[in-house]
Amino acid sequence: MRKFSHKMLKISTACLFTLIAFIGGMWVFAPWDSFGVYAIEKARLAAAEKNVYLDYNGISVSGVLIPTYTISDVSLNSVLSKTSVSEITVRVLPLSSLLSGGLSLYVWLRSGETAIDTGHKLRHDGGRLKVTSAGDGVIFSNVSIEGDIGILGDIEYTRDGVSNNALIIKVPDNLDMMMGFAGFFERAGANEWRLKQNAAAEK
What is the pTM of this model? Predict the structure, then answer.
């Protein structure tokens, strides 16, 4: 009986190492460049459903164990504004993705600007954030974007709109009044605003 148990343990251990090697091989040799193009095209379609149009010049991937994507000349166009960023870097977070049961990414933004239909141009000095898909929602955490408009905090989007909203948007004096007229922001302090809880659902 002891020999049988020892034999079964050896077989189980061999199967486990084979499975780990198989998964590791799939990860190392996965076509990450194709995945990146697929993901950004899905994002482009999702944005278009909200009348926001995403465009970019190119995408490249580096790294094997932890893939990192570099997307150049990114722009987002809507009826009210156009935002451009010279470069966005996206790194896949394998352990965080496994723990969340979804996809987890860390994102770095280079400099850019937002032009709004009033004629104002707002400078972005860069920033960073973590993006995690969770169930039917997406969590944006550790958001830190600097420039003429500062964005700090965390926020979660679900099909029902905005929830767990701790994201603060800091604006200059010449935009403070306009934020109130926009309709989907609520004041959080002097020159500080946050998205209304039902802002995404209303759109």
Answer: 0.73
What whole-number distance in Å separates Cα of residue 194 and Cα of residue 179?
Answer: 10
Tokens 């709109």 found at: 161
Q: Name the one residue in this structure whose structure tokens are 């989907």.
A: 184
Mean pLDDT across the chain: 77
Instruction: For residue range 18-29, list pLDDT tens digits in order.
Output: 444 444 444 444
Helices (H), ranges, the chain: 2-28, 32-49, 94-100, 173-182, 199-202
Name the residue among 73, 75, 70 with its Cα closest to residue 47.
75
User: Higher pLDDT residue, 35 or 91?
Assistant: 91
CB–CB of 32/61 below 8 Å? yes
Closest alpha carbon to 143 in 194, 196, 178, 189: 194
